[in-house]
Amino acid sequence: MSTRTWSPAAMGWPRPQRIALAVGLLFAVMLPFTVPNTSWLVIATLGAIWLTLNQSWNLVLGFSGVWHFGQLAVYAVGAYVAALLSLHSHLPMPVNIVLGGVAALVVSTLLSLPALRLRGIYVSLMTFGFAEVVRLLIISDQTGFTGGSYGLSGYRGFGLGLDGISKDRASYWIALAVAVFTGFALYLVMRSPLGSGFVALRDNPSLAAARGISPRTFQMLVFGLSGFFAGVAGALYAYVFGVVSPSLMGLAPMALLVTMLVVGGLGTVMGPIVGTVIMTFVQARLQSWPDVRLIVLGLILLAMIVLVPRGLVPVAAKYKKRLDDWIEEDELSRVSTPSK
């Protein structure tokens, strides 16, 4: 008697994850028509930009296991380069955004060189110190080139020829398209031999090096690739909101973004998406209480580290696997039991 199970996967139906992803993407596309006011649309646009940044950060922090806490400085480099190009050149917006990503790629790749000689907490200290140096250099600039502590504004925006709600919707859809493209590109990277090399160096550097995976080459690649997408996110922020300032960096934004990654789950494809969506909503609800915002974020981060250290996505995947195994075992027992 055949023991074939009639599960959805065996029948050729789409996997539940793909259905959920398609439904989520459809909801995200239709979101501008469902929000009660434009303020929520602005928050959703910022969340889409954060999603691009978080996916790039997850590549180096989660999949590669490098404790890189200078990603916000790389993000700011992309934002400032795009704003400066908009102010002092006549290049089109897409070119400026890509050039912002390229500038961030170069800076991030250079940052990987000293990081190669360090391990663990020392990489964290070095990269966080780099971010602080960049922030303080911008603040102390007296030439007006970076705008100092006030930042840069008054440059050309998207230039879409739209006003009001139409402009906000277009900005959101552009930010969402960049986030989706980033996710798809990084998914392909992690499914390739390059992604396998990143994970191998994270899990067992000595064995990976013995198998011919160069730590220097792969770490420079992961820093450069993550830096490019972080720079694109920063450039997109500059064009959407029309201002860049040192407030893009610092402890408060880093605490929020790290909390997003921890809540969703480091080293997973869906982790940054889930964590960014949840914490963007929490952040929006905390806007009315700025004095307690960091306290609440700190408590959430502490609770996640203690109770669910791997994040929500790995826990959900664990219970889903148990459910799938139980369903498969039940189907096999039904098929193997002879009918009377």
UniProtKB/TrEMBL annotation:
Membrane topology per record: Multi-pass membrane protein
InterPro entries: ABC_transp_permease, LivM-like
Keyword Endoplasmic reticulum among UniProt keywords: no
Segments passing through the bilayer: 20-53, 65-87, 93-113, 120-139, 170-189, 221-242, 254-282, 294-313
Top-level taxon of the source organism: Bacteria
Keywords tagged on the record: Cell membrane, Membrane, Transmembrane, Transmembrane helix
Cellular location(s): Cell membrane
Pfam families: BPD_transp_2
Protein name: Branched-chain amino acid transport system permease protein
UniProt organism field: Mycolicibacterium frederiksbergense
